[in-house]
Amino acid sequence: MYQSFFVKTYGCQMNQYDSEKIDELLVHNGFKKAQNLEMSDVAILNTCHIREKASEKFYSDLGRLSVYKRNKEKLGEKMQIVVMGCVAQAEGEEVIKRNTLVDYVIGPQNIQSIPELLRTKSKETIHTNFLCEQKFSSFPKSFLGGGL
């Protein structure tokens, strides 16, 4: 069975664009889009660091989502939480310190690594380095026409 995912976007238009690309990338890699965060196996929070209200809302939602993840685990179900975007890039270690149930913190330049991380369940939590070669070689050619 394929893992289901849902991407929730906070903040700016660039984050909305990145979220759309992640949707396409995960579907292209065999993942199934869920109807909401609670129904997903993988909850992806795409964050904005510039807009203060977006960052506050993200941390609030992350707290609620963590409770939901714990409850799912009590029922024997799995859920992964991925924090990506500008907050992930700027506050990588801080995100993990504030919430230890986050599985991955991924900067905007590393979105191409999400399918592989989810499949392999990498032990490395923070992915914020810019790996130019890997980024552009990992996307299907149809993605590159959009300015990634």
**Strand share of the residues?**
15-25%
In spatial order, strands of the major sheet run: 2-1-3-4-5-6
Write down the Rg.
14 Å
Give the structural class: alpha/beta
Q: Count the E strands.
A: 6
Provide the residue-averaged pLDDT. Answer: 85
- What is the CATH homology-level superfamily? Methylthiotransferase, N-terminal domain
Total domains:
1
Spans of at least 5 consecutive residues whose pLDDT stays below 50 are: none
Q: What distance lies between the first and last C-alpha atoms, to the nearest angstrom?
A: 30 Å
For this entry, give a set of tags:
alpha/beta; 6-stranded parallel β-sheet; 6 strands
Overall description:
The protein has 148 residues and is of the alpha/beta class. It has one domain (4-144): Methylthiotransferase, N-terminal domain (Rossmann fold, 3-Layer(aba) Sandwich), CATH 3.40.50.12160. The protein contains six helices and six strands; from the N terminus they run βαββαβαβαβαα. It has helices spanning 13-28, 52-74, 86-98, 114-120, 132-138, 141-144, and strands at 4-9, 32-33, 42-47, 80-85, 104-106, 126-127. The protein has a six-stranded parallel β-sheet with strand order 2-1-3-4-5-6, with helices on both faces. Strand 4 (80-85), helix 3 and strand 5 form a beta-alpha-beta unit. The chain is globular, with a radius of gyration of 14 Å. The termini are far apart.
Summarize the structure.
The chain is an alpha/beta fold. 47% of the residues lie in helices and 17% in strands.
Task: List strands and helices in order, with pairings.
Elements: E1 4-9, H1 13-28, E2 32-33, E3 42-47, H2 52-74, E4 80-85, H3 86-98, E5 104-106, H4 114-120, E6 126-127, H5 132-138, H6 141-144
